[in-house]
Amino acid sequence: MTVDQHYIELNNKLSNRPNLLDKTNDWLFVLANTMKAMIENTDKSKLVELEKILDGVASQELKLAYDFCQGKFGQEGFSYRRHPNYFYLSSLIATFPEFELSQQDRDYLKEIIIFDHYLLYELD
Questions:
Q1: Using 50, 70 and 90 to split pLDDT, how confident is the model at 49?
Q2: Tens of pLDDT along 30-45?
Q3: In degrees rounded to 5, what are phi and psi of residue 90?
């Protein structure tokens, strides 16, 4: 499945507002896509910060990177910081079970971080 196809499928799935994600690729997409939206909305010149998630070997490290991103880019200047979609996507990230990232997961993250459509803005 391409990133475009996954985005459309995931957007449709999340429109039903499930409380939890059940697929690793869905979680990786939500995490990286929401981080990129935060950084781009606040300071596009800092998008290189997103590449730090590629160094993670476990989901817990990615969650910590997301928390760091929230602290740095999710405050003043982030126009969606009080938006229900932001709260919803953040809750999906926080509640996903821990796992070790495979090389396939890291490769998929590389594809996601260059994708330019955002669940944060387009989720119904």
A1: confident
A2: 999 999 999 999 999 9
A3: -65, -35
> Nearest to residue 40, comparing CAs of 110, 120, 106?
120
| Residue type, position 26, single letter | D
Q: 86-96 as b/e, with b when 16 or more CB fall inside 10 Å?
A: bebbbebbeeb
pTM score over 0.90: yes
Spatial distance between the Cα atoms of 29 and 8, rounded to a whole number of angstroms: 12
Contact between residue 93 and residue 34 where contact means Cβ atoms under 8 Å apart: yes
- What is the 3-state secondary structure of 98-113? CCECCHHHHHHHHHHC
